[in-house]
User: Which sequence fits this backbone?
């Protein structure tokens, strides 16, 4: 249950033949009543893919309204030049007709390898059945959530009850997860009443502390997209209520992405407090979370805090090595910049678990931030050393 | 042959007992005639180690003169607080006496794990014999170059004839190699006549394009130091001649560091041309060189250029995806942002070699940069997943 839980949405997934072996690779999420308020955030990568270019243009043309999202896995349609843009437009057109929607009311997402031509005829051939079979059952939602996966091992879905309104969502992640999004796609649906402007502001704030506070391998992908559609069939929450519920949904999906990251065996939350500012806290938390040495240490469950202090010092945040405190879970291992006697067994046990918390108090001010990361071990290498 | 090749220098190495098992761990490089012009560049990490603080202060106190450098491996003396500063001063004092030099004329370097107390009594006990046994034979230089190693597999030494003067050098590297230095220590010696000011400017320029253009794992360490001593026993080169020869020595050592990086099986040079500026070219080259996905692809010898285009787009450099050209060695695989027909066997063969060149033409201007990187595979994980 995910994108069809909020009132007013249908979904579907299919094996169109983009991926070999009959794997699901094409998904649809649509508003039942036609175009509704919509918002999106996209990758900051200047090599952004054709579907990002097209979706951004469509949202601008409709002033923030969309009737549907079509998504494919198995091909990123990135680094594909003018032909890629044509293919992305044809992908929107392929479902706009059967849905009775305008082409610009359809948003497009793709994920997969960069640099390969999108097999658009394959998608066009599959589109009528994809649209015709749409529905609002949990199975329909799961079919959509399954069809967008790449190296993920299972679909990611979430629902949240906002009181007078509902929010549901699906996402795919795996590798290339870094601030300012990642190769991650997410589609959220809500039956809240909200203008495109309110929806856009709420989504941006929700993404900032969740998907944008998640680092898997520090690579910002070409295709990252988070889309929200609002059917307006339920209550009209305040902007703060809407933001909070969207953020809750995004946080849940972000955690699911981390836990299912390529080869990851544990998820770590890097909490920085006492920074000179929130911006400094983010710099510091991201430096620790993105550190290859820290991530490999997490794989080894190694309580070598020297790497953490070193990354804090190199982060660019204001930093005084004589003030820093570091803890693994509840076990403080560093105070005023030097190692302190501690329960080594407790620290080791915490690091050996599937969920790790590393807290860093910089002792300088009131800035705070939290970033999710994962360990990095042999499975990541195996998964990424060859693409074919 | 390295630091004793230029006239006026002696060296030595010893197993002081800092490392277990009788491994060499203490090194000395000294000018025969007492204090001579000296210069250094240090890590930018705000968690810099005690020896960095002490060496910087000593160089400032002498206005750029030094008689010797004492270096230890087996302990970084970092995150060790006030006690660490006292230990670093005592380390300088331990050789200053036997050498007949002032304490402030001795520079100090340490490398090893962070957060452990330096066993200073062990170093003090070993210092008289270290000084007493100093000499200028190749064996003495190699003993010094060996005693500074950590996870390196062999000593790194180099000599260059500048015509009227000589330069020699030794270095250690391994992990944590990133711009603005890395856990790398290097000591260079020259018999050129040069003022401390000229020497300092020449060293900074030499380091910028060499040690600071090398990325192994993106981690900037707490202890990085490059020191040069100039005995003045030979010719007086122009600043440009001195800079060029120092840069030549640093480039050779940087390549040796990359080739012996933890777990590395190949070295890759990322060349960016056609950037809007040299600064943009450095941003772009560093983004590709530092990319975990690119580095894992290099381990797999995988010609997946999509990751390169994606990193260029995410680098922050001015970038137009429709203009970029990418080549593996002599084989162009991308033109105007899209894949082009190419000799796949030639590209694959180039990537399978021990030295890889990846050229990226951004098609925007005349900015250029070159950065060395390495592949990243299972051996890096094995080496870094546990420190004990």
Assistant:
């Amino acid at each position: 249950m995910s994108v069809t839980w909020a009132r007013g949405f249908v979904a579907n997934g299919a094996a169109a033949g983009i991926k070999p072996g009959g794997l699901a690779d094409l998904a649809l999420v649509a508003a039942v009543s036609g175009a509704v308020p919509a918002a999106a955030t996209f990758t900051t990568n200047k090599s952004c893919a054709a579907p990002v270019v097209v979706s951004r243009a469509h949202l601008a043309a409709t002033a923030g309204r969309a009737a549907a999202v079509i998504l494919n896995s198995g091909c990123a349609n990135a680094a594909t030049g003018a032909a890629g843009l044509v293919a992305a437009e044809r992908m929107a057109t392929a479902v706009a007709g059967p849905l009775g929607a305008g082409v610009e009311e359809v948003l497009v997402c793709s994920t997969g390898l960069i640099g390969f031509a999108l097999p658009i005829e394959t998608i066009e051939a599959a589109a009528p059945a994809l649209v015709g079979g749409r529905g609002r059952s949990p199975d329909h939602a799961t079919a959509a959530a399954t069809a967008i996966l790449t190296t993920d091992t299972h679909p990611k879905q979430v629902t949240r009850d906002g009181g007078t309104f509902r929010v549901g969502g699906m996402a795919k992640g795996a590798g290339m997860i870094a601030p300012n999004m990642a190769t991650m796609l997410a589609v959220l649906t809500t039956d809240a009443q909200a203008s495109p402007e309110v929806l856009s502001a709420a989504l941006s704030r929700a993404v900032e502390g969740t998907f944008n506070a998640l680092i898997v391998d520090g690579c910002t992908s070409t295709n990252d997209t988070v889309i929200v559609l609002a059917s307006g069939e339920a209550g009209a929450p305040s902007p703060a209520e809407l933001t909070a519920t969207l953020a809750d949904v995004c946080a849940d999906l972000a955690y699911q992405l981390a836990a299912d990251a390529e080869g990851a065996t544990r998820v770590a939350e890097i909490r920085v407090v006492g920074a000179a500012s929130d911006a400094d806290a983010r710099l510091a938390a991201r430096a620790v979370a993105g550190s290859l040495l820290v991530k490999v240490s997490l794989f080894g469950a190694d309580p070598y805090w020297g790497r953490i202090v070193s990354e804090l010092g190199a982060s660019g945040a204001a930093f005084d090595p004589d003030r820093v405190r570091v803890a693994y879970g509840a076990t403080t291992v560093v105070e005023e910049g030097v190692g302190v006697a501690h329960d080594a067994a407790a620290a080791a046990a915490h690091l050996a678990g599937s969920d790790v918390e590393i807290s860093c108090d910089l002792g300088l001010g009131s800035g705070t931030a939290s970033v999710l990361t994962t360990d990095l071990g042999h499975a990541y290498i195996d998964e990424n050393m060859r693409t074919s």
Q: What stands out?
A: The radius of gyration of chain A is 21 Å. Chain A touches chain B through 60 residues (CB under 8 Å). The mean pLDDT of chain A is 92.
